[in-house]
């Protein structure tokens, strides 16, 4: 669905939010495209759990970030996911089996329950005791968060 549909806001307003995120990303020297759609990323997240176990988690997540937020690819499609897996040196055949069998569904659910427990609704979110810092932040803001009481 479109981001405007998901947030139940006018497309122009959502466009302004995206432009704000693009400006923030530019300040942090991160690529960020003009996204308009939101996709069900459950399968991508399940594959991400597998990729971490294979020592390729960071590479997979960076590839998924680029595919969605820069290249506007649909992370809900098997073809995109299998291409991402291959791009980081993992077996697309094994990934396809994992997707078909829902091998990581239970672990995924446990992670989501933990996020719900801590009221985490966005990524990245840093949690320290009872405090949270949400969203991509400059290094000085992260240090301030860590060092504040």
Strand order within the widest beta sheet: 1-2
* CATH architect. name of the largest domain: 3-Layer(aba) Sandwich
User: What's the number of domains?
Assistant: 3
CATH fold-level topology of the largest domain: Glutaredoxin
Provide the β-strand percentage band: 5-15%
Q: Give the overall average pLDDT.
A: 92
Q: Just give the CATH class of the largest domain.
A: Alpha Beta
Which regions are unreliable across 5 or more consecutive residues at pLDDT < 50? Answer: none
Radius of gyration: 17 Å
Order of helices and strands: HHHHHHHEEH
- The total count of helices amounts to 8
What overall form do the CA principal axes indicate?
Answer: globular
Specify the structural class: mainly alpha
Write the CATH homologous superfamily of the largest domain: Glutaredoxin
> Share of helix among residues?
55-70%
Number of strands: 2
Biggest sheet layout: 2 strands, antiparallel
Question: What features would you describe in this structure?
Answer:
12% of the residues are buried. The chain is mainly alpha-helical and 149 residues long. The chain folds into three domains: 38 residues, no CATH class; 78 residues, Glutaredoxin (3-Layer(aba) Sandwich); 30 residues, no CATH class. It is built from eight helices and two strands. Helix 5 crosses helix 6. Helix content is 60%, strand content 5%. A hairpin with a 2-residue loop joins strand 1 and strand 2. The longest helix has 17 residues. The protein has a two-stranded antiparallel sheet with strand order 1-2.
